[in-house]
């Protein structure tokens, strides 16, 4: 199983990219939002990946963050949701938007994805709502790829110099605000589900709110008279 790829972006198509990893080109399918956030061809890139294995098909799907990958995996566990529909949802909402919609039971938001009807959207919300809190609390950016040393011919002394290291890979800008706010509310004694729901609602009402503002808004909604 291939869990991550780091290499040079060769080209970008409408629904996939090719990444050259030490001379091997990998085709990786991605959500539209993920594609839009990747660097230009010729630059270094790193993606978490998930592999679809069938008798007549092998496909790699790429994600900028572990949270995005986990939402893809969870969406694919819902009956009627395949890889195409899961990517469509992530393209329409992004991982944070997907988490908020499912946490708040907002099936109408899920319906924004191409090919997702009302019944399927409702099923997604119902089946994944209890699992949303843990994913919302995830916020792990991908690390940069290590520099590669020049190969040494057999019997030869190792060279002193290494190939010039590539520029560090741009790390995705991970939005830690929601994860930090959820963690703070959990530390105050609220359950993960309560905290995630409160923070998701606060983030929906005030998308630009910082961590402290999300915590205050979450606390207010969790109070008996909130």
From TrEMBL:
InterPro entries: DNA_helicase_Holl-junc_RuvA_I, Hlx-hairpin-Hlx_DNA-bd_motif, NA-bd_OB-fold, RuvA, RuvA_2-like, RuvA_C, RuvA_C_sf
Keywords noted in UniProt: Cytoplasm, DNA damage, DNA recombination, DNA repair, DNA-binding
Molecular function terms, GO-annotated: ATP binding; four-way junction DNA binding; four-way junction helicase activity
Family matches, as CDD domains: UBA_RuvA_C
Coiled-coil annotated residue ranges, if any: none
Localization of this protein: Cytoplasm
Record region (Domain III): 174-226
Pfam families (UniProt xref): HHH_5, RuvA_C, RuvA_N
Segments for region (Domain II): 65-142
Helix-hairpin-helix DNA-binding motif class domain sequence ranges: 73-92, 108-127
Recorded GO CC terms: cytoplasm; Holliday junction helicase complex; Holliday junction resolvase complex
One Gene Ontology biological process: DNA repair
Highest rank taxon of the organism: Bacteria
UniProt xrefs under SUPFAM superfamilies: DNA helicase RuvA subunit, C-terminal domain, Nucleic acid-binding proteins, RuvA domain 2-like
Region (Domain I): 1-64
Comment text on domains: Has three domains with a flexible linker between the domains II and III and assumes an 'L' shape. Domain III is highly mobile and contacts RuvB.
Physiological role: The RuvA-RuvB-RuvC complex processes Holliday junction (HJ) DNA during genetic recombination and DNA repair, while the RuvA-RuvB complex plays an important role in the rescue of blocked DNA replication forks via replication fork reversal (RFR). RuvA specifically binds to HJ cruciform DNA, conferring on it an open structure. The RuvB hexamer acts as an ATP-dependent pump, pulling dsDNA into and through the RuvAB complex. HJ branch migration allows RuvC to scan DNA until it finds its consensus sequence, where it cleaves and resolves the cruciform DNA.
Assembly description: Homotetramer. Forms an RuvA(8)-RuvB(12)-Holliday junction (HJ) complex. HJ DNA is sandwiched between 2 RuvA tetramers; dsDNA enters through RuvA and exits via RuvB. An RuvB hexamer assembles on each DNA strand where it exits the tetramer. Each RuvB hexamer is contacted by two RuvA subunits (via domain III) on 2 adjacent RuvB subunits; this complex drives branch migration. In the full resolvosome a probable DNA-RuvA(4)-RuvB(12)-RuvC(2) complex forms which resolves the HJ.
Family: Belongs to the RuvA family.
Official protein name in the record: Holliday junction branch migration complex subunit RuvA
Phylogenetic lineage: Bacteria, Pseudomonadati, Pseudomonadota, Alphaproteobacteria, Rhodobacterales
The gene coding this protein: ruvA
